[in-house]
Design goal:
Blueprint (H helix, E strand, L loop, with lengths): L2 H12 L12 H9 L14 H12 L2 H4 L5 H10 L3 E2 L7 E4 L12 E9 L2 E9 L3 E8 L3 E5 L30 H9 L7 H29 L29 H5 L8 H20 L7 H20 L5
Antiparallel strand pairs: 1-6, 2-3, 2-6, 3-4, 4-5
Helix pairs in contact: 1-3, 2-3
Length: about 325
């Protein structure tokens, strides 16, 4: 079976029994008038509709390019012949053209249908405008057949338009020089005769080059990074002391506190003082080489004056 004709038959079977109206009006002729005829001539709404039904079915099946869209049966047959899709062998799915006088003249064709089944020289068809008014199945012999059109043999040229392609030039711009933008775009286009292997190789080399540059940049950045975490230099000031200084007994020094055990009754307070003392020793030990810093000297002087003032005003301290 012709595969394209099979799609037409699937549509046609669903319309079996359709009957034209009293004035000859059909939905197939009306559809043809609105969608195919360029002049939208009212004539087609009530005209003989055997071929317009096939045009409608082809549209519904999405096979108009292989089947054609005609109202005149002779023109339809010539179209198949022009497309090298014409012959005399019956085949299910083929479009069959009749001449009731029995000639094989394409200009004398009177009627058209679609072959559903072949039994020797007997054809089982589905035809629009059969018996002059109805869409129905018919059984006919080969005596009145002019020929067959084979939809699947019609060669459809596949076309592709890239999304970035410029629209076709208008008539008034045909022959005008291309703009600078178009010239640039053409230079970016890969030549059609470039072998596929070379294109692939070029892409691989581009990826390798980009990877090498990225690795080099990464190594350079890593070399500039510090090997150790930077130390934040802090100035000595009140923020190194608790808000309420702890008064130590006269016979206890910070050194004694370092050796103090956690189980003594004064451990909570003494531990805090020892922690601050240890923090100060570590801090000032790290920045001893900055003693020549003028700003640091200022803070040292300020700290000494503050310490003397606190010592003088703290009760029980001598």
């Amino acid at each position: 079976m012709d595969p394209i004709g099979k799609k037409l038959l699937d549509i046609a079977e669903k319309e079996l029994g359709y009957t034209e109206k009293g004035d000859g009006y059909t939905k197939f002729g009306e559809w043809y008038r609105k969608n195919v005829d360029g002049d939208h001539d009212e004539y087609f709404s009530t005209a003989p509709w055997c071929d317009m039904f096939l045009a409608w079915a082809a549209d519904k099946a999405g096979v108009t390019e292989q089947t054609g869209q005609f109202a005149a049966t002779s023109d339809h047959a010539k179209w198949f012949k022009k497309n090298d899709a014409w012959g005399r062998e019956p085949e299910p799915g083929a479009i069959v053209f009749y001449d009731w006088s029995g000639s094989r003249d394409l200009d004398q064709i009177d009627h058209v249908g679609i072959v559903e089944k072949v039994d020797g020289r007997t054809l089982h068809t589905i035809e629009g405008n059969a018996d002059g008014y109805k869409l129905m199945r018919k059984t006919r012999d080969m005596d009145h057949v002019v020929g067959f059109g084979y939809p699947s043999q019609v060669k459809v040229v596949a076309t592709y338009t890239p999304k970035h392609a410029a629209p076709a030039p208008t008539v008034d711009r045909v022959g005008t020089p291309a703009t600078a933008t178009n010239t640039h775009e053409q230079e970016q286009t890969v030549p059609e005769n470039l072998p596929t292997q070379e294109v692939v190789l070029g892409g691989i080399l581009a990826v390798v080059l980009c990877g090498t540059l990225a690795l080099t940049a990464g190594r350079a950045a890593a070399a500039k990074a510090p090997s150790a975490a930077p130390i934040r230099v802090r100035k000595r000031g009140k923020h190194h002391r608790p808000s309420h200084p702890v008064a130590l007994p006269a016979d206890i020094t910070p050194v004694d506190l370092d050796r103090a055990e956690a189980g003594t009754a004064v451990m909570p307070a003494l531990s805090l003082a020892a922690a601050h003392e240890a923090e100060d020793r570590e801090f000032w030990g790290r920045i001893a080489h900055l003693e020549e810093d003028g700003e640091l000297a200022f803070w040292n002087t300020l700290h000494a004056e503050l310490a003397e003032s606190e010592y003088a005003t703290t009760p029980g301290v001598r």
